[in-house]
Amino acid sequence: MATAPIEPPQRLVSSLSGDPESPVRKWLDALPTLVQQRLDAWDLTLERVHAPGGRSSLLALVRQQDGTPAALKFPVPGRVSAHEGAALEAWDGWGAVRLLRADDTSGALLLERLQGAVSLRSLPEAKALLEAAGTVRRLWVAQGAGHAFETLSGRTEEAVEALRTAGALAPAAGPLVDQALELRRALAEGADEQFLLHGTFRQGKVLAGERSPWLAVGPSPVVGERAYDLAALVLDRFEDLMAGSGAAAAARRRVAKLADSLEVDRDRLRDWTLYRAVDTGVREVAVGERQRGELLLEFAAWL
């Protein structure tokens, strides 16, 4: 039983809609009750709510009835979060955090406890990339027809209009936006892989564990080609790469090295990286993060 009021972290509260009638705001208001109900139903003892936490979920550190540590997660409701548990179940602890229990009604996920303060970002760049590549490879599970996950073609198709709209706020990036949109069309038409992907894979999403040295968390699962997942890894810690000498050549070497080490087509990885850099860059500019957005667009131009 909880010994103190359950309060959602401020980072989560501030990231959600301020409209009191919005579904996510109603979910947020009900969250303390939902957490307590799940603690009672699963015989869990609350240690503390993880803070500052993330912008898309509440994570509570708990103990199971036998004293084993675990983590109780409540993702913000939505289509993507609805499939997080299914992806973790498919991986069954192979390269990812193990799902212990799930509740479809509340969306709650009971997960094995990892070392939340220790991610791959704590390692030197070369070592972090090596470990990240080995982890993401384990997650790529081939999917047949009839799978329940969102497709990469569908996800990026929905993002096209948003990219055009955001691009209008960064007119100097117009040629890059046009190129990214054309690449996305060609990539979607030429894709012939159907793998379960993490969807938002990066070094900060890989945490230290007891059962395995490094395990992925927080997937936004999607089915498509592996180069899409790997593109996010190319972009990871791009600011560090840009701060060094010969940054443009180093960016292209990173693409080639990751593509070759994971047997992914170099050109498709470059194209997906450019698309994702432009997509993220113009969105950053649109929400006021101009410096980071412009750096991402510069990175895209190098490719």
Walkthrough of the structure:
The chain is α+β, with helices and mostly antiparallel strands and 303 residues long. It has two domains: 10-113, Phosphorylase Kinase, domain 1, CATH 3.30.200.20; 118-302, Aminoglycoside phosphotransferase (APH), C-terminal lobe (Aminoglycoside 3'-phosphotransferase, Chain: A, domain 2). 48% of the residues lie in helices and 15% in strands. The protein has helices at residues 10-15, 23-41, 84-91, 125-139, 152-167, 174-190, 226-235, 238-243, 247-261, 266-286, 290-302; strands spanning 45-49, 57-63, 69-75, 99-102, 109-112, 115-119, 141-142, 195-197, 206-208, 214-216, 222-224. A five-stranded antiparallel β-sheet has the order 1-2-3-5-4, with helices on both faces. Strands 6-9-10 form a three-stranded antiparallel β-sheet. A three-stranded antiparallel β-sheet has the order 7-8-11, with helices on both faces. Strand 1 and strand 2 form a beta hairpin. Helix 6 (174-190) crosses helix 10 and helix 7 runs antiparallel to helix 9 (247-261). The longest helix has 21 residues, at 266-286. The protein starts with 9 loop residues before the first helix and ends with a helix. The mean pLDDT is 91.
